[in-house]
Amino acid sequence: MTVARQESTARRGPGRPRDEELAQRVRTAAREEVAELGTYEVTLASIARRAGVAKSTVYLRWPSVMDLLAEALVEVSQFKLLPSKGDLRADLLQLGEQVVRVSMVTPLLELHMHFVAMGAAAPGVYRRFQSYDMALGIARGKEIFLLARERGEIGRNINLDTAASAFMGALLMNALLGTKTSTPDQKMIKNVVDLFVAGLVHA
């Protein structure tokens, strides 16, 4: 092995780090393509071109452009799970603001709308998008409802999975279809939270 090759290997590290570095570049390129061209114009070939990698490299890792976009989406849409405030309404307001803020990050909003729109046409990809994008929010919502049940704020007959999924769905749908602003719509979040709290408390 030459000195130059040894230095290159030492800088890069063995196998996996290099693969992840390349994947990161491709995911970044995917988000840039969506921001510039829109979801319907993006292809695996255009993403590979922007990332400066061979098309075969992209095709081997991602079977379709939607699989790649779903992965690119989750990379920047994860949010920090904050501690409970000890009150159902306060916890839901806190979660709601995080979910809506994350959904507004460019180009997340267009990606969200695209995945929702294609749900019926490609249910498999849509399910992967849901698991990527909504898993953390739903898990946190379920935890919030569980704590509320233990505090006696909601009845023990409430299905926690259904409540958490419905809350996340209502937030995202309102964020996607509402007026586009640079900051979360606090009034919309409050309305969704109050609707859920009223319904669950009296269930």
From TrEMBL:
InterPro entries hit by this protein: Homeodomain-like_sf (IPR009057), HTH-type_TetR-like_transc_reg (IPR050109), HTH_TetR (IPR001647), Tet_transcr_reg_TetR-rel_C_sf (IPR036271), TetR_C (IPR011075)
Domain HTH tetR-type: 20-80
MF annotations from Gene Ontology: DNA-binding transcription factor activity; transcription cis-regulatory region binding
Region (Disordered): 1-22
DNA-binding feature ranges: 43-62
Keywords, sorted A to Z: DNA-binding, Transcription, Transcription regulation
Annotated protein name in UniProt: HTH tetR-type domain-containing protein
Provenance organism: Frankia alni (strain DSM 45986 / CECT 9034 / ACN14a)
Lineage, opening ranks: Bacteria, Bacillati, Actinomycetota, Actinomycetes, Frankiales
